[in-house]
């Protein structure tokens, strides 16, 4: 039931003038007020507004008798409940949303006329939904997977959706293959196993026969697929889009999101543990950060490529399995997005938001990327079954701010009450309203690309270099990152039961990098097969020789921007630090450490053998039973009675060490360090801190995120 809300304030949808009205601080948030309900202090009613007297008992023939069909209150309640669920998204089912704002830097008018990218004074409201791809709605956040990074800008010219991922390329080149890819990665159809995982036969069967996926596979097997936080991921538009400027000149554009907290990941073993200890880890992390005022921020970056340069690259700009190396075309930062408000209602907002990369505004247009072109069909189509009909744009989270006027009418759940007799055009009975808009006044006109072509089902040969950028990505990684890719492939292929699929995949890896293939083969106890890689993406009448992958040149051999080792490492803001303590802990120094960490924006929690008071005014936030090292970024050992003999504390420390985290030992806790499994390994380890300048050194180590070099010995029990 809608509460009698405070009337929507000035600047809500209805009040906004289509032409450049000054917007309130966040016009979208205000526009949602009219649709929110708050039961605080209200009486309970049925959906028709009838006050309910008894919500505890159904109507019966006698208090021990059968329930009566007459009970319209019971029937209404149960009926609504029965229909609470809608189909989950066929991909990207598991997601988390947040509201925020975008502010342009105002430096891109040379390339685009999109108003929200030009006006530095205006804050454009945004709604963002992050997601995993393969898992169901209730699956773990920490699956090895691509992350969706979908951003809606509620601009003065309508909604612009940048529906991207946290990886800049994709598995396939043509929309025609998308259902195959997704069928291969989803749980296998006979037993619906495994959930939210690509480590199974059908996925690798498809991949090993689809060499165009090689580049994306490198990304998916890298640590990019197991982010530390949704707030610490890059985002990419993936496809090449077009910008159009005021003079009508077009250029190609690639979109990037650069997180101000840097790009960081967890370890794979850690990810698997988090999935058990807190499957909502990413969702909770995003929610908590926003609730605590630690607002995540990203800069929007663009790579602009003049139309004249379309054929200057050794790959095709229309091929979504390729990125444009930042060394060739630098990323220009053109604005900042800040996420500053959690949704009020998950279903109404995060679940019902209906993104579509076809939602664009003047100044932005599409390219002929065949993956992009197919997506232009899919997104509206999928909402029709997911949200139940053609009026999903009327759901509050989907409404544009500048109002909707056209001759579309009726359909399931129509909300709008259209006045007047005319719902057609041209009309003379209604002044021919709503009127079309001249381009000069903001009417959208598609970019007039010249096309002279034969109608044909085919792919240009410029799409056939499948391995050069896969090799560029692998080459650009630090040694620990390379090790992680090798481990990930060994893990995934190890779960594949069909040996022929494993072998075929080794053949693909050989085309990317011989050492990579050899290391994975060793782990699998197999030999790397020689011979050409099969490409099965060919039509029935195609000659396989015409479709063989070709070897490109790779103008760039190493791209530092592709390695997370080169990301920003200058803050511990919002990092979670565990302080291990037991009864009798020195309260003064514990409080000093906590204060120092919190002063840097970190979140510190005291973990002890039991809850309650453990020292002079010190309370445990969690006991070892409820806490786990994998849920923290670093550990401070504050000490206390018997901590060196506390098995849970030692396990906590060993595991933190294994996952390459910073660990500091307070003076007087030497016995605890001695009892760990890594006491003999701390010499020259920059992440194990003792002695002088402890806090300073500890903070520096946390800024470094992880001491990845530590992990290879694999000798730490945990
Ligand atoms: Fe999507 N994708 N996709 N996708 N996609 C969907 O739309 C589809 C692709 C992406 O948080 C669906 O509303 C096709 C690339 C995100 O609500 C569906 C193809 C990229 C989200 C769909 C692709 C994406 C989706 C499912 C190949 C990165 C979640 C529910 C032609 C650039 C949006 C929905 C959200 C969701 C189709 C490929 C990103 C079925 C056919 C490439 C972030 O329409």
Automatic annotation (TrEMBL):
Pfam families: Catalase, Catalase-rel, Catalase_C. Its EC number is 1.11.1.6. Residues 1-30 are annotated as: Disordered. One of its GO terms (biological process) is response to oxidative stress. Its cofactor is heme. The active site is at residues 92, 165. Heme binds at residues 89, 129, 178, 375, 379, 386. One of its GO terms (molecular function) is catalase activity. GO terms for cellular component: cytosol. It catalyses: 2 H2O2 = O2 + 2 H2O. Belongs to the catalase family. HPII subfamily. This is Catalase. The lineage of its organism: Bacteria, Pseudomonadati, Bacteroidota, Sphingobacteriia, Sphingobacteriales.
